[in-house]
Structures are given as structure tokens and as C-alpha cells.
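Task: sequence in, structure out. Protein: Hexosyltransferase.
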Amino acid sequence: MNLQHQDNEPDLCSRHERLLLLYIVRSFHTNFGRREILREIFQDIPHDPYSKNIIVRHVFIFGKTKNSTLESLIQNESNKYRDIIQEDFMESYTNVSLKTIMAWKWSVEFCGNADYVMVMNDELFVDQYKLVPYLHYQLLQSTRKDRFVACYRYEDSGDVKFFHEVKHVPQNILYKGKRYPRFCNGVGYVAHIFLINKLYIAALDNHVFMPDDAWNGLLSEKLNIELPYSNKFYEFYNPIQKFSSPDYESSVLMFAVTDKRSNRNHVEAIEEKLLTILANRSAKNQGEILYIEHNTDEISYIRVWLIIIAIILCFVLHKKRKYFRRFSIIYFKIWHLCNFF
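Result:
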């Protein structure tokens, strides 16, 4: 399988020594508004202790289109943002699996210095203020590279008839099994670059079929890849209510799928609303973080001065042991009090 780049940004990642996260977004040519919203999310890096000096990058991927006007608009968008990747195959639902291979391939070939890759559709709304600190923490705590970090795990008997009659997928590329394997929903998942590389290599050695979710699941099954149950991190039907809920603060991660059921014709409006909610919350949290860091700095200065005073007094009182002992007790009480704060 030899996919050729029509548009590419080969230096996007290589100009950095290391990236924490690459977002690689499967988009459609006409979804200009969605891409604008996602760009706004991706460029806003959190300022918490787990996100300092973090580098995050993104690309949007497409196949070709026969519409010359649309192709021209995409080219202008590419020239402006330098985040568009196009491969030399026709954009269609039937070729979604090829877009997945394209995502894995580009990640491995041009962004191998990323720790994590999130392959996602452009209808997925990402709360980066939760995701980036979470991934950084995971990187520090775990040495495992052979698993998905976030995955909406799905198990279903599969309705092949639906894909053939409604989605017009040819019978010869449809999944032939009776039941779909367990898989990560293709709307969005996060994995270590090591795992993305394994999936890409396996994809080159296995027949491609649709739906792409089931195909991804079959590859994961063959590679004995663990699929974690992260379903509670995804909200499919009431994203605005979920993101506005007080319970949201305690959630570790959160992704909103914005095109389900009655939402389908209002994706950009929903994403704009979510973006506003996120901006208001992050501004509030940022103020709290800066306040905590400022207080921490003040406490650090107190500790330094206590140490200096202690050293001086040690020299002065070293001949008078009883005074030295009494001073030591007082000093350590003050020290523990500072640690408490």
C-alpha cells in the first residue's frame, strides 16, 4: 500500500526535539468551521504544573476532491495555517480506512518524536485543559507503551446491511465476520506513538475492510493490544449539559461527540457553545493556579531564610549545647508549619 502525499507539512514536528501530543484529525473538505474551532482549542496550552514546556501539534487530513473550487479553498487554508495533509486518493466514506492508515503513517514517518497521538474526527470536541495534564502525568507514571490511553471501547454484533444499503459500501470490502471484534470507536482515541507504529505495520500486512472501527479492532486483536474501558470520558448526546455540570470538574478527561442524533445539523453551534464554556472555566482555573504558584514562591523564600538563619545560629550556639538543642526544636516546628502551608 503506497499512499502518496499531495499536500504535506514534513517539518511540523521535526523542528522540535520532542512533543507530548500530536492531534491528527480526519476532516472533510467542507468542514471549515469545525477546523477553526479545533485550531483555537489546540493552540491553548494549559498552564498547570503538569503542562509546563509542553509542545502540542495538530494536522487535518483529507483525500482528494474532484471539486476544483473546494480544492482551491483547501489550498488557501493550507497556505495560511500550514496544518493540512492530503493524500492521493479520493475522499469518500468508503475510503475512511485509508484515512486511518494515512493518520498512522504520517504520525510514524513525520512525527515519531511525539509521545502520544490522538487520532480523531472533526466532530470530536476536546478539553485540552484536562487531556494535556492527564497525558503528561501518564507519561511520568507509566512506562507502558503498548496500550491505548483513551478509548471508547465498543462491542457489537455489527449491521453489515446498514453499511451496504445506507452508506453504499461495496460488499467486497465489508467485514465478513459474524460479530465485530472489540474496538476503539474511531471518533477519537489516544495511544502512544509506539502503539501507532505497531498498528501501521500491521495495517500494511492485512486486508483493509469496512467499517474502519471493526478493522482497527481486528488489528488490535491480532496484536494483543489492551483496549481500556474509557467510555465515561466521552459524551455523545448531551455535551453542553455535561460540560456545564458541576460534576464535570471532577472528571479526569472529557470528550464531546457533537454530531449525534438531533445535534447533527448544529455541530458548529454546539462546539462554539462548548468553547465558550471551556474558555470561561479555564480562565477561572488559570487565576487559581497562578495564585497558588505565587503563594508557593513566598513560602519557598521563607524556607530559604530559615535555613540561612539556622546555619548562622548553629555556628554561634555550637558551644552551648543546651541552647542549641532548644533552638533546634523550635526551628523544626517552624519548618513543619511551613510545609503544612
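Residues 235 and 256 are 5 Å apart (CA to CA).
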